[in-house]
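Job type: complex structure
Entries:
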Amino acid sequence: MQRLPKIVRIFAVVSFTAVVVLFAALIVNSFQNSGKPLTSLAPEGPSAESIQRLVIPVTAIAGIVFVLVIGAIVFITWKFRERPDSDPDEFPSQIHGKTTLEIGWTILPALILAGIAVGTVMTIINLNREEPNSIKVQVAGQQWWWEYKYDLNGDGNFDGPEDITTATELVIPAGKPVQVTTTSNDVIHSFWIPGLNGKKDAVPGLYHPLKLQADEPGVFRGQCTEFCGLSHANMRMLVRAVPSGDYDAWVRNQLKDHAADPTNPVAAEGKKVWLSLCAQCHVIKGINDAKMKETPPPLVAGVAPDLTHFMTRGTFAGSIFNLYEPVSSDGQPLPMSDVAAAGDPGAVLTGGAVNSATVNRVTLEAWLRNAPALKPMYPQGGRGMPNLNLTEEQIDQLVAFLETLN
Amino acid sequence: MALTEDRPLALPSGDSNDGYTPTGVFTRPTAETGPRSWFTTVDHKKIGIMYGTAAIFFFIVGGVEALLIRMQLWSPRGTLLSANLYNQIYTMHGTTMVFLVVMPIGAAFANYLIPLQIGARDVAFPRINAFSFWAFLAGGVFLNSSWFLGGGADGGWFMYAPNSGVIFSPTNGIDFWNLGLLITGIASLTGAVNLIVTVLNMRAPGMTLMRMPIFTWMALVSQFLLLFAIPVLTSAQVLLMLDRLFDANFFNVAKGANPLLWQHLFWIFGHPEVYLMILPAFGLVSEILPTFARKPIFGYPFIVFSGIAIGFMGWGVWAHHMFVSGIGPISVTAFSLTTMFIAVPTGVKILNWTATMWGGKLNFSAPMLFSIGLVTMFTIGGLSGVMHSVAPMDTQQTDTYFIVAHFHYVLFGGAFFGFMGAFYFYWPKAFGYMLNESIGKANFWLMLLGFNLTFAPMHVLGLQGMSRRIYTYDAGYGFEFWNKVATIGAFTLASSIALFIFNIFYSKSKAKTLPPVGPDPWDSRTIEWMTPSPTPVYNFDPIPTVTRVDDFWYRKYGETKDGKLVRIASTAEVAQKRTDGKGIHLPSPSYWPIVLAFGLPIVAYGLIFSLWLALIGGIVVVAALYGWIMEPPDDPDAVHDDHGPEAHASDGGDAAVPDSADAVKEVETVG
């Protein structure tokens, strides 16, 4: 047997060690889920928890099989390696197979899998059982944002006068079950809030059920997970679970409209700009409801988020930008990258007045200045917001108007 | 062959051929060396080498795309690629690696090895074989020409409707994807028919199905998968083509279409596709492991039947790609269970390979290292596969980087490691020189390191929420560190490929100073190693008679009753000598396969840009078919039906040890 150059032997040892260290680091890291708002390994609602109860044993079994198989292979390659001093005419015993062994290692994995199958089927049943008295929300994906319609009076219709339509952020009461129906107005998207449940595709023309429930109040982030074209990466969602009382106050505020003209003269100018440009696609209840009533919705977007209560949301532009400067508990601004803390509308959520000082004006103005530069879109195809070539004055007026939309 | 002959189909060799005049306009090409011989060849070995070369070229293209993806994802809000370009690049990366790399490398080995392993002189339909290769190349070049004609496809390799419609993807990228894969689909389908017929009809005397080398078995199963899977994709693609180019409404939701139709069709193709990509590699390691363990494959029938079982069960698991598509809890449950249990035959293979090594005398040559790499890395991919089969878990994992990790462990850690092992293993057989072993071992360890650095972190990235197919991610989600590791890994992996390519040229230059490689440099087991290296054009002279599995091994060695092995003949005695090949009739080269194949992309360009061009392409195709049918054999003297082994003297399997107990006794006395 030919000896290898020393450098190759050293490299083999280094490489093997590096892979072992890498695997160990990855296993340790998979337990470190704080500061990872999209992790699927830290469930915060009953559905996600029931999935996690499956993840742990199945991963453990897979881990044991992995250790046994890889361990066996490493052991065998060590024990049965050809020794440099071995007799080249000496051959190992020529075994062609052993049927009992074959039957054994066919049946054993099948039995392990049968055990996993039982847990799987029970979890599938559990995840598909509809909760009584759940809040009904229809979630519609479009390029590249989400629309939420609440059937508040339970009549099965999501567009009645007592129902509400909002966008970008889904507000739910903590501890209460929410029955989501996913659908789409253009291509296939997928609605995924990893902290609360697995994902469900939003398919145009079809309506798919998904249960959501948050144990505690909090912000749960999500990301569209079915490739949906140009800005798929920029299609996020956010579930804001609030205490029941806050949720009721939020609903009462959402039912209001914005028919009255703003008192601030700059904002009043902004409303004129809004009516002449933005109202072609966006809706504000009380101002251009007719736009909202266009049915059926066109299957190429051409519609834009309902802005009636724009300022009650913490994020905008498909939940990729914060509408409010993140503020720490002592009132200091936080870095924008701190996604978990950012984008809190505070009291505006339930209808409080907007404090202009907390609004993330820089990004909002930049968006109005040239939206496609911040988020790739196809405005020429009716998919996404165009560059409206607004003047700086118009932008200031529009921001002032938007700030009245609490 | 040519159907114009109005003479008896079987003239005895040497008879005059009165009244025979070639009716074809062209005579057959005759070049046996030089570039021309490659364009007109119908030799399965040359075609196999061309498949491999083209696949390595496309592998570099797809690899550069992969590196661009990894560079873009190096840090949050990467600016190297625009969203639009990223979507094209990841689509083309997936498409290229599946259709233009893994499938054709499988085809390369199948083409090169099947006739050699079954003791045939060529495949059943040599011109169709050449056509398959040229059509694959034409489709691949056509597909990639989209980069210069308005941009690549941007819908993902899965091309889900309705995002693949004209409204959502108005450029021609998806048309190039669609028509290009229709052309490679024709290549795959004709290739599959050809190889199936070859295996079923052209085996050497004595080679029953259960004496076939395992690679031939696995390649046969994967050709059956191709035969039935490709038409499903083709149907879906024709619908998409009609939608995009002729305003049909198969996937138009506004007209009442259900876009899940595409997903079902795509994955009914797509999942058997996965198995047909991995099975050839399974076959290759099943050749390599016993050779370097110095003992037979453990449980030959179980490996064969588990491969067949995978081939059947692979048809019943497609909807596990659709657990979150909204197919309903009953379907989810059913496909969840079928997917779980397909792990059983796969596990049987892993355990049989492990048992093959047990008790052996393991020589860690480069092919062996890559094969052990396959067994271990595929185990990881298989186990994460079982995790997805648990549908509720999959709802968290699907469309995240966890899946990206999974299928790269299956297709790179599985299929490609197997291919690498087979490149090192069969290189001397195909080219007559060995690849440098030390570089080969360094190549393995560098690839193992780079591969794991690239793809292992993606498991954790996916579980911690990173979606697939995103051109960017934001800071604050905890994705930064492992993305950097993966990018470093990708460049490490690329350097291992560079080392492999370096090794090819380095070893070739060194080979001149080394003694020529004999027929059997690894002390191998199956009959392809009886032929001189590089294999002569006629493969075998004479055709061997096969008496058992690992026939060549048992020409060299005999087994005593208690399983002890004794040498009964030297390799030089039992291997074949290079002869002048006189009197062996081989299929004649032909111009028409390449003409026919390159007529197809002209039709495809025409469908996109101008129907007049399509008409010209159609004329080329019809003319090529006419020429193909009418061309005469260059050797009118040739006996028409002498491709079969009975036409030439067979060696009668003299050196082989018959199965009877008496013979074993004889061997004992010899030993």
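Summary: Chain A touches chain B through 111 residues (CB under 8 Å). The first strand of chain A starts at residue 135 and ends at 142.
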